[in-house]
Amino acid sequence: MNTMAGTRFLIGLLLLAVLGNELDASRLTVNQELSNLFNEFWTLDVNRMQPGVDYSILVQGKAGYVSQGSNVARDRASQPLFSNVNETKLGLIPTFSRFLTLLDNYEMSTGVAERISPEEVAENNLFLDAVMETEVMKRAQRYLVGKGKSSANARQFRSQLYLIWFQLYHRERNAGMDSSGFEHVFVGETKSGTEIIGFHNWLQFYLQEKHGHLDYKGYKAREQDIPDQDDHVLNLQFSWHGLVKPVGSAFVGASPEFEMALFTVVFLMNTQRSTAVLVNIDQCQMELVVIRHGRSLGTAYPRLLSSNSRHLPRSPAQ
Question: Is 311 a catalytic residue?
């Protein structure tokens, strides 16, 4: 190798090293403190529905690519995602039963001002009352109090939750108060009549599928992470009222208090407009993504990275 070629080769190696370091630096590292806390939430979530007992899912085929803005998707799932859900049990659990009363309180399209009646405000408050009584949310409050992010006073903490999740705000410019964190995350919205935004809740998915408004198209995952009926987080593709969501994500079976506690902690522990934290919960590794809308929640969802414990340290070969 001549001197000039050797110099170019060394420069190339240096550039690769620099780029590699930059890429490594940009990758998230596991937040162990929040992983530990959220696994506590998981254990405390006694209202979580159990796969194969309280509900059953059929993950079927892997969904194909759909470009953003397109509403044409090949159906890789001939059957619904949910083959059954124990609705009787849901009705006996206060957080679930009160959650269900909230799902029809919103206009589907952004840009259309919400009209929240006094009865609907009362439903919001009854739901929060039930959530506040759960061990999951009590643990979240203790953690946030310890970090100086919330008050130990139950009424003040409840008001903080209401502001984060239920306060109406403008999502579309030049429109009325047309959205809230709860509506976006748990109910789902459409934008300009052309795309689905939000919609990250398994129970809303089940109900919309049951009533014929939603068609599950298949799961989205890498080859080494093919989901099964026991997975608690799914990346999936679906159509809703004729519009297609190329990739959505949701916990499956989790209680509403678990999801609210999880995303409230991420929301309050960060001040950036957009936040992603990498955590390990149960057998899954995921990013929890939260985007703020002022003092309220803009969106929040899990992005599944590994569902079969590949992220966990392996025991040395015997």
Answer: no
Q: What pTM does this model have? A: 0.88
Angle at 164 between CA 162 and CA 169, to 5 degrees: 100
Distance (Å, rounded) from C-alpha 184 to C-alpha 216?
A: 19
Phi, psi dihedral angles at 303 (to 5 degrees): -115, 105
- Exactly one of 217, 220, 232, 245 is catalytic; which is it? 245
Backbone angles phi, psi at 192, to 5 degrees: 55, 20
Determine which one of 138, 200, 210, 213 is catalytic. Answer: 200
Q: How far is CA 194 from CA 68, 71, 161, 240, in A?
A: 10, 8, 31, 11
Q: Where on the phi/psi map is residue 290: left (φ > 0), alpha (ψ -120 to 50), or beta?
A: beta
- To the query of whether residue 200 is one of the catalytic residues in this protein, the response is yes
Instruction: Considering the candidates 89, 184, 232, 311, report the single residue annotated as catalytic.
Output: 184
Please check whether residue 29 is in contact with residue 285, taking contact to mean a CB–CB distance below 8 angstroms. Answer: no
Residue 95, H or E segment: helix 94-100
Structure tokens at 130: 């039930």
**DSSP-based three-state secondary structure for 242:** coil
In tens, the pLDDT along 209-257 reads: 999 999 999 999 987 788 989 999 999 999 999 999 999 999 999 999 9
Task: List, in order, residues 6 or more apart from 218 with CB less than 8 Å away.
Answer: 59, 60, 61, 62, 63, 64, 75, 76, 77, 236, 237
Q: What tokens does 70 get? A: 């397109």
